[in-house]
Amino acid sequence: MGSSRSMGGLRAALAGSVAALAMFAGQAAANEMSDEQKAELKARLDALKERLNQIEGKETQAQAERAAPAQAVTGGSFPGSWKLPGSDTSISFSGYVKTDAFFSINAPQASGGADVIGDSFIVSNIPVDNTVAACQGGNFRVHARRSRLRFLSNTPTEWGTMRTRIEGDFAGGGGKERFSNSNLFRIRQAFGELGPVLAGQTQSTFNDADTGPDLLDPAGPAGETDVRQAQIRYTYGATKTVGVDVAIENPESRNLRNVANAAATNANFQDKLPDFVARLRWKDSWGALNVAGVARYFTYDDGAGASDSTVGYGARMGTTINTWGKDQFKLSMAYGDGLGRYMDTTHNGDVYATCRDTNRAGLGMVAGCNAELRTSNAWGAWASYTHFWTDNLRSNILAAGPRTTWTSPSWAPRRTDCSSPRRRSTPT
User: Fold this and answer.
1) What is the tens place of the pLDDT at every residue in 180-215?
2) Residue of 146, 175, 153 whose CA lies nearest to 77
3) Backbone dihedral region of 112: left (phi > 0), alpha (psi from -120 to 50 degrees) or beta?
4) Is the distance from CB of 45 to CB of 17 less than 8 angstroms?
5) What DSSP string runs through 109-124?
């Protein structure tokens, strides 16, 4: 403050001197000074002006240096964020610790021990009565694998705000319960969004974000559509309450049967086109309504002459209806051919290859046969009601169920009795 005042006083004094010299020069001119005297006065006047400019320049630099601390960390453009010094980019780091404890009444039906139910709570792995797994008793499991880390950023640009999100948890593979339980970190979401365009990995456009279930377990209800994958999405806001999304998303064919019972992602099943997804969203004071559809293309080629292709599709509808207070009723339904992996707990296949030949076996490929590619039929539905006892305490009741059906080859004989091999159903 003292430095600023002294600078101001010096500048005022110099300015006064310059003005006095100018007046003196004017008077001298009126008295017809000699040329030598005029030159001397002009030189003194120019020197004082130069000195004044130097002082003002130093003061401007000092003010800039004093303002530099103001570029330290400041609040960002969204809650919990701060700005990177010297930029308009706002960032935030967040997350939470989550501990899950499960007790399954029976052992899991699939291989993998208690992890199959305790980590993912896949309902279709609960064994049916009178099986070995059902007689083995229950399993207890506690873990913190769903603890989550999240990074967000917002950067203003001339095309709008650029938003990024990177999020992950520790539900990847690895880790032994015998020692450290050091599970691997995995990416859940990683995408950038600029204006109406999103690119990266996030929840599928086929999912139902506005009308999703309110549950603690990560897998959600049986029959829910639940996929995260890489995509390029365009969003159009038709009105304040209605929006349309279209996207191309990463394809993945999960097959029921293949050559020599190989893995369900056998290389003979190729993904030649992306999955095409569209969604209509309507959200207002009464609640929300989402309608979505997906189109898929499946191909099979063993490189030795056996090849075929087919198209799959799926549709889903979900709604949330606000009832009394903060209570909500939710309903979701989905149906499709080749929809398999999009529907939670029915991940046992989208498509399968079989032989057209009448002298070959049923489901499954064998070398040298004429390939026929067929999609599985799947549907799922769930409904729930959420009641708020207080602003911070709520509970809900939910009922759900999926079903997957596939057909035998086209040459198989039709029968009317229940033992027909034509159709096989797997309730899950």
Assistant:
1) 888 889 999 999 999 999 999 999 999 987 777 888
2) 153
3) left
4) no
5) SSSSTTHHHHTT--GG
Question: Tens digits of per-residue pLDDT, 92-129?
Answer: 999 999 988 877 776 654 444 444 555 666 666 677 77
SS3 content of the chain, % helix, strand, coil (to 5): 20, 40, 40
- CB-CB contact of 26 with 41 (8 Å): no
Pull the structure tokens for residue 125.
Answer: 């792995």
**Rounded Cα–Cα distance for residues 398 and 393 (Å):** 17
Contacts by residues 278-282 (CB-CB < 8 Å, ≥ 24 positions apart): 278/205, 278/244, 278/245, 278/246, 278/247, 279/205, 279/206, 279/244, 279/245, 279/246, 280/242, 280/243, 280/244, 281/210, 281/242, 281/243, 281/244, 281/245, 282/241, 282/242
Count of beta carbons in the 10 Å neighbourhood of residue 387: 15
- Determine contact, residues 382/260, Cβ cutoff 8 Å: no
Query: What does residue 354 show for φ and ψ, rounded to 5 degrees?
Result: -140, 180
Please give the average per-residue pLDDT across 55-65, as a whole number.
Answer: 69
- CA nearest 257: which of 162, 174, 164, 366? 366
Cα separation of 167 and 286, whole Å?
Answer: 31
Tell me how many degrees the CA angle 121-126-130 measures, rounded to the nearest 5: 165
Q: How many Cα atoms occupy the beta-carbon half-sphere of 221 within 13 Å?
A: 25
Give the residues across from 428 on adjacent strands. Answer: none
Alpha-carbon separation of residue 384 from 211, 213, 320, 321, 399 (angstroms): 10, 7, 10, 11, 6
The greatest distance separating any two alpha carbons of the chain, rounded to the nearest whole angstrom, comes to: 132
